[in-house]
Design brief:
two-stranded antiparallel ribbon, 283 residues, 12 helices, 8-stranded parallel β-barrel, TIM Barrel, alpha/beta, 10 strands
């Protein structure tokens, strides 16, 4: 019997005692100012340098995280399948699950081609954009390839609100309809930003709609200014907190990941204490 993505997540979370996900977004100086890989990785063979950067970042942060999330926009135009396999193999060797941040969105046959190659590269799951409308088809196809499917529900960028929070379907915000589809078609989880335009009520609504088991992946903490409190207090038990730039571009990524793991644990502890205090007061 095959192990599902959610079972892999639970195993990694338990073994690592962590819900931290490391976002691998290796940017070059041609992309932007600041938040770029160290110059040593850009000298000579850039493709080799980016691979080394990813492998070394995994090695340095693996003790404090349970997942990695490489972003295909930074990697698929530079790395081969063989090189991507090295990244996913390194993750497995360090007890991490791997999620390809691909935001796939196309017709069924095209999606399935992507599922095939993403599985060939060794990933455990991928991110998926629901705006092609075929969540059911994509979920079934990804599961046949033994891949988890995490569906963009309400994104961390503030511009997402003009469409994802609009009442476009039966007078419901679109993000709520997406959450309903995730539950109906048994996708593996939702993606919600941890940034300020997304409220605790928004997060609670999604958790209520998708049910207790599916994962919610929260990008936006760190450079985007998101907070740990909303995901932890409103996201339920099965969550991943993604930290990218704030960790991978630090002079000591391992230490930075350790600090975030400690902050996350403290936030969880404080919230549990708060709930216990409320329970005692109610008696």
């Amino acid at each position: 019997m095959q192990t599902t993505f959610l079972e892999k997540y639970q195993k990694a979370r338990k073994e690592k005692d962590s819900i931290l996900c490391i976002g691998l977004d290796p940017g070059l100086r041609e992309f932007r100012r600041g938040d770029v890989v160290p110059l040593k990785y850009e000298r000579g063979d850039v493709e080799k340098g980016l691979l080394e950067f990813c492998l070394e970042t995994i090695e340095e942060t693996a003790d404090y995280a349970c997942a990695i999330k490489p972003n295909s926009q930074y990697l698929l135009f530079t790395l081969s399948i063989k090189e991507l396999k090295k990244i996913t193999r390194k993750a497995r060797e360090n007890g991490l699950i791997s999620i390809l941040d691909h935001k796939l969105s196309d017709i069924g046959s095209t999606n399935d081609a992507a599922f095939y190659w993403i599985k060939e590269a060794g990933f455990d799951a991928l991110t998926y954009s629901p705006f092609a409308g075929n969540i059911q088809e994509a979920t079934n196809a990804s599961h046949k390839r033994e891949l988890g499917l995490l569906v963009l529900t309400y994104m961390s960028n503030i511009e997402a609100g003009w469409i994802q929070k609009q009442s476009l379907y039966e007078w419901k915000p679109l993000y709520q309809k997406i959450a309903e589809e995730i539950r109906t078609y048994e996708s593996d989880g939702a993606i919600m930003g941890a940034t300020g335009h997304i409220t605790m009520d928004d997060i609670r609504m999604v958790r209520q709609q998708i049910g207790a088991e599916p994962l919610i992946l929260f990008p936006g903490v760190g450079r985007q200014g998101g907070s740990l409190k909303p995901p932890i207090q409103a996201g339920g038990d099965n969550i991943l907190i993604n930290i990218g730039r704030d960790v991978i571009y630090d002079k000591n990524p391992g230490q930075k990941a350790k600090e975030y793991q400690k902050q996350i644990k403290q936030e969880i502890k404080d919230y549990k204490n708060q709930l216990e205090k409320q329970r005692r007061t109610a008696k």
